[in-house]
Input
Amino acid sequence: MARDNIRLFSSPFTRLSVLLYLLAAAVAAAPPEAEAEAAAGFPVKEPEELELLLVWAGPEARSDTAQPQPDYAGAAAFLRSEADALGLEAETLEFALGKPLVLLRWPGRRPSLPSLLLNSHTDVVPAEPLKWAHPPFSAHLDSSSSHIFARGSQDMKCVGMQYLEAIRRLRAAGFTPDRTIYLSFVPDEEIGGKDGAGAFASSSKFEEMNVGLVLDEGLASPGEEYRVFYGERCPWWLVIKARGAPGHGAKLYDGSAMENLMKSVEIIRRFRAAQFDLVKAGVKAEGEVVSVNLVYLKAGTPSPTGFVMNLQPSEAQVGLDVRVPPNANPEELERRIAEEWAPSSRNMTFEFKQKVSVYDMFGKPVITPADNSNPWWTMLEEAIRKANVKLGKPEIFPASTDARYFRERGIPAFGFSPMANTPILLHDHNEFLNKDEYIKGIEIYESVIRGLASYNEHAKDEESRAEL
Ligand SMILES: [Zn+2]
Output
């Protein structure tokens, strides 16, 4: 698709990066034909639509935002420079010192309508460079596979830059949104998001924005169908402690702490297997079952060389990462924990290190309806369909994202990262996204933003019109 070439090389960051990219493409280990092309002075075609991602996920823009020491200042400078180039309004909010959140705004023609918020996080998880085929922070475009290797190429620097590219295309096509569009680039998602999306969602600024719908990250899909998420499992980090009489290591007796604990571990293991079997049999998706994983076991009496070997300890504990779907019955699970996993009759206790509620602040399950009852869903589904791609059945996200902070407040939020035919490599070595899939994603967002930002004159009934 044609686009305004005037903008290419317009910001200092992209200019520098593209130059470096061209240099690297000419010098680096490229296949002979590419080398010959570079030597013959042919332009490298890719950067035009890829440039933003190659910079945002690469080293040139000082946008190395890997935890635990993300360069948020460099990232904010890059984002603001791109916002200027695009003609978007920009402000930097700082809910925690040194953790800027960049908020961009494209004013709608009807500002009283609820706005659309396109969220993405600026930080990424760290990487072990030696285990990667290409340096993880170099945004390497592999010339034979057309894969872009970069930390953040899936999670989720791709999405942030696709939003911007889609907006560039829409503006070039003369589109003006009815509702105001915001883009938030938030810090700290990878460490829980409390100082990022968490603080933002509860701020007066957010209130003022009158957000009607949030789009946030999803997951890659190894198949043809794109994935969309309407809720996520809630982490319950559970510690179960067992007590029992201590005793000589040679003595057989009932009710030791270890025996009590291991009985529970066996019951939990069976519950886990039953849940996992539902997934393996295809009866339920991963996000629809309760997952339970043992994360630590702690027991024994330390000695200078390890543990005392002839003593049965009086205490033992296990740590469990439990993830609960928001449409599960939490009371039933709590009863199971109290009666079967940690029964006081076996001298056991339990506590939650973290227990995220499956209900929002209005007492409803923390999910965004993904059916015809929700006009936002209808609009999203239609806009994705208009981009000529297939959408899978809406899912519950198996882990946590920033979307929960918005859903908790009753704001509809969908998780969607347009990556089909792509292995799920977030947080993995050699995280990559194919360049064609990335560009296809820009087209999808173009359709999605156009659809969601336009006032639905033809909404079926008065009630949904009023809502939107
Ligand atoms: Zn992410």
